[in-house]
Hints:
By secondary structure, the protein is α/β, with parallel strands linked by helices. The protein has two domains: about 90 residues; about 100 residues, no CATH class. It is elongated and about 80 Å long.
Amino acid sequence: MAEQDRKKTAIKAPLSWAFDKAIENWPAIVGFFVGPGAMAYLASISAFLQPFGPVAWGAAALCTLAVMTLMYLAYGIARKKVATANILALRASAKSSNVLAPSHEHESLNLVDFFHPLATKVSRVRFAHCHLFGPINVAWQGTTFNRCSFGHCEVVIVKPGLTTTVLLLEDCEFSECNLFSLTIFLTKEQWLTLPHNLRTGMQVLNDGV
């Protein structure tokens, strides 16, 4: 099963990269494919618009811009819905796991399974290529994140020592994992030293005052 997941990841990674690049450069791509057709269309209607002067050309340009904007907006909404559906599907596939295991690979996990009122710390556990879901309050100490992403997560800046009732990730290692729907308690120093690429998908709820 793990081998199949690795193959799927190997296939999806370049496709996802290509998809994101297409979104970033959509004007150039559209211009490349549509350009010749658009020029031919403009040539065909130029005789029709000529009697109306510059006002007609301006109105045509504005209408074209409005249509392209609406198309891009609709595409963005559709992409967001697809991403949300994928996250919900991954969450539904999350299964109970051996929370005492020293490592987890290619798993969909609910972090709440790792929390216990009498044992709120997870120490020296390695997570690789995992999807981890909340909602749950977490904090970390000595934990590293390598090529990970956070989605729909909130950050609360707290004073040191005020995170005794959350799941503490101590000296854990996360490699190429996706974490969703977490409320993360960090000290101001931890937040300021957090790499900027990890802050994507995090919303700070307070400034620690």
